Amino acid sequence: MNNVYIGKVVNTHGIKGEIRLLSDFLYKEKAFLVGSLIIIDDKEYKILSYRKHKEFDMITLEGYSNINDVLFLKGKKVYKDKEALNLKEGEILDSDLIHFKVIDKNKNCGIIKEIFYASPTNKVIRVVFASEVLIPLSSPMIKKIDPKKKEIEVDLIKGMI
């Protein structure tokens, strides 16, 4: 199995065994499908219900209907089998972008070393050319992402490199 990190259990909610997750995963509608499986500490759990509450993702798990049953999950990382996400063509996970080749219009080539959030809504890629460059992932500088070639075409602003 190829597991993908989708969030962290930060607390319980209520007395009926609901758990509160903090997740910035891009494809939540695929990750938290009712009836699908999530993985915590190498054990699979079936999702019984899912809802959003403020900035949290709230789920209940099959066989766990009391707060005392789920307390042991607090602080645990949550994963999903990548194959179970059923990603369509063109849908790509952030973790898969690491090591993609970045090609500038001036034929400068670099490699993606890291993806992180500069703010809650601004995802940034760290690219190593001759020097390090930070490029917002939602920027108009990103022209094309080609998962088959593992390349990203960019149009960098003069003076960035």
Q: If you had to describe this structure to a student in words, what would you say it looks like?
A:
The chain has helices at residues 28-31, 67-70, 94-97, and strands spanning 3-13, 18-22, 37-40, 43-53, 56-61, 77-81, 101-104, 109-119, 122-128, 132-136, 142-146, 151-154. The model has no long low-confidence stretch (mean pLDDT 91). The strands form two sheets. A six-stranded antiparallel beta barrel has the order 1-2-5-4-3-6. Strands 10-9-8-7-12-11 form a six-stranded mixed sheet. A hairpin with a 4-residue loop joins strand 11 (142-146) and strand 12 (151-154). The chain is elongated. It is built from three helices and twelve strands.
Spell out the helices and strands N to C.
EEHEEEHEHEEEEEE
Mean pLDDT across residues? 91
Strand order of the largest sheet: 1-2-5-4-3-6
The N- to C-terminal Cα distance equals 39 Å
DSSP E strands, number: 12
Q: Kindly name the structural category.
A: mainly beta
The general outline is elongated
Question: Spans of 5+ residues with little confidence (pLDDT < 50)?
Answer: none
Rg over CA atoms: 19 Å
Number of helices: 3
- Residue share in β-strands: over 45%
- Please summarize the sheet with the most strands: 6 strands, antiparallel, barrel
Helix content: under 10%
Q: In a few lines, what is going on in this structure?
A:
This protein has 161 residues and is mainly beta. The protein has helices at 28-31, 67-70, 94-97, and strands at 3-13, 18-22, 37-40, 43-53, 56-61, 77-81, 101-104, 109-119, 122-128, 132-136, 142-146, 151-154.
